[in-house]
Amino acid sequence: MKKRLIHTILLFLLIYSGLYSQNKAYDNLKAPYRFNIMLNGGGAIIWGSVSGSVMLANFMSLDLGLGLGKTYAGTTFYINSPFKNKLWQPYIGADIALFEEFMGPTSMLGYIPLGLRYLNNFGISVSFELAGLMSNNDRFFIKSPIWGGIKFGKYF
């Protein structure tokens, strides 16, 4: 499971670096916004979480989140908007979540979201995403390999 996840992430980074080098017109990313705080429904922690992120570059952020007995970390890559309204922006990410089970081992979950973010000029955002799930725990309570989420946030 870990080896497949690492290969998927490396392949994604290779493909995305090629896309980024072909088109550097990231005018829809708001340069002054470098940090955000979000409330998440669904997502990498399954039911809900509070998360934050730091923009490492105009096209990439490092994300951290917390839920009840759960934590996650990952990265998000923002793609240049193909829409006329540049406030809508597609993204793709890769997250690893850890679940602390009561009186049992910690489970790990891989979460690969594809989403669409709306970021207005006041730094308010809403994002919708669908994602693939991978888990090292056969008893994991999600029966579908597809999951999703919605995020409400404020950028600073």
Describe the structure in your own words.
This protein is mostly beta strands and 156 residues long. It contains 1 helix and 8 strands, in the order H-E-E-E-E-E-E-E-E. An 8-stranded antiparallel β-barrel has the order 1-2-3-4-5-6-7-8. Strand 2 and strand 3 form a beta hairpin. The longest helix has 21 residues, at 2-22. It is globular. The chain starts with a helix and ends with a strand.
The spatial strand order of the largest sheet comes to: 1-2-3-4-5-6-7-8
Distance between the termini: 36 Å
Question: What structural class do you assign from the helix and strand content?
Answer: mainly beta
Mean pLDDT over all positions: 80
Tell me roughly what share of residues is in helical segments. 10-25%
How would a crystallographer describe the biggest sheet?
Answer: 8 strands, antiparallel, barrel
Low-confidence stretches: 18-28
The coarse silhouette is: globular
Radius of gyration in whole Å, from Cα? 16 Å
Q: What is the string of SSEs from the N terminus onward? A: HEEEEEEEE
- The number of helical elements comes to 1
